[in-house]
């Protein structure tokens, strides 16, 4: 027999319940999770489904029990009779070992692969943001170089003022794409060099640009002071 039950439903991903999504009698969208049908727990892998119940010739009503223990009674109507063989699709195991995974294993595996792809694709898109901390900054630079060429001028000068703390001779610059340093000047705290107004200019062999964070661009100046240098802390 063919029964009209007046609802639209779908099974949950784990096959241990069904969700009523639409009530044709009231014409409303619903979201009711059913755990039992006529007192039998739903288990799609074991064949305990609503479709099995609908094959009964003496069916008059269906008792649906939610996961919260609330019962709903559905009066069924016979729409007609089907004579023949109907087909359905489900996964079959190839050997005895595959029985332990049940028929839901392929669907579970497909969902896991799908979510892995979605997560990996989302991380890739996030990493493509044109910010210096992401790879998108490099890719954007390569695209600009490819479209406009590398011989465009976008350089500017900037002066950084750093305070010597007496322990670290590597000075982090405020810009991270530094190509050249014109000069390094040390302003003595107590003005010990009156002939130069307390100013010492380091030679080019006493400092160098280094790539401290390893991104391919110079961002730090390393000052090589002689061992007999006596600079006080807070010297600029």
From TrEMBL:
GO terms for cellular component: membrane. Keywords: Membrane, Transmembrane, Transmembrane helix. Coiled coil: none annotated. The chain crosses the membrane at residues 113-134. GO terms for biological process: proteolysis. Residues 112-157 form the Peptidase M50 domain. It is found in: Membrane. It is a multi-pass membrane protein. InterPro entries: Peptidase_M50 (IPR008915). This is Peptidase M50 domain-containing protein. It comes from marine sediment metagenome.
């Amino acid at each position: 027999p063919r029964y009209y039950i007046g609802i639209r439903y779908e099974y949950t991903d784990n096959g241990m319940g069904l969700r009523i999504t639409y009530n044709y009698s009231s014409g409303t969208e619903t979201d009711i999770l059913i755990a039992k049908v006529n007192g039998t727990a739903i288990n799609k892998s074991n064949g305990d489904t609503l479709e099995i119940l609908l094959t009964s010739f003496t069916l008059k009503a269906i008792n649906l029990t939610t996961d919260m223990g609330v019962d709903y009674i559905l009066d069924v109507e016979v729409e007609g009779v089907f004579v023949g063989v109907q087909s359905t699709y489900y996964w079959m195991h190839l050997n005895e070992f595959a029985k332990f995974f049940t028929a839901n294993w392929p669907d579970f595996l497909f969902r896991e692969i799908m979510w892995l792809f979605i997560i990996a694709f989302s991380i890739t898109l996030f990493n493509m943001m044109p910010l210096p901390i992401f790879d998108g900054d490099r890719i954007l630079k390569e695209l600009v170089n490819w479209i406009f060429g590398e011989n465009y001028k976008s350089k500017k000068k900037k002066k950084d003022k750093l305070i010597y703390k007496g322990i670290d001779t590597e000075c982090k610059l405020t810009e991270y794409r530094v190509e050249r340093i014109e000069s390094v000047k040390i302003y003595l705290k107590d003005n010990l060099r009156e002939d130069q107004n307390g100013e010492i200019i380091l030679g080019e062999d006493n400092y160098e640009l280094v790539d401290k964070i390893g991104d391919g661009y110079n961002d730090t100046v390393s000052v090589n002071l002689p061992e007999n240098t006596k600079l006080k802390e807070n010297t600029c």
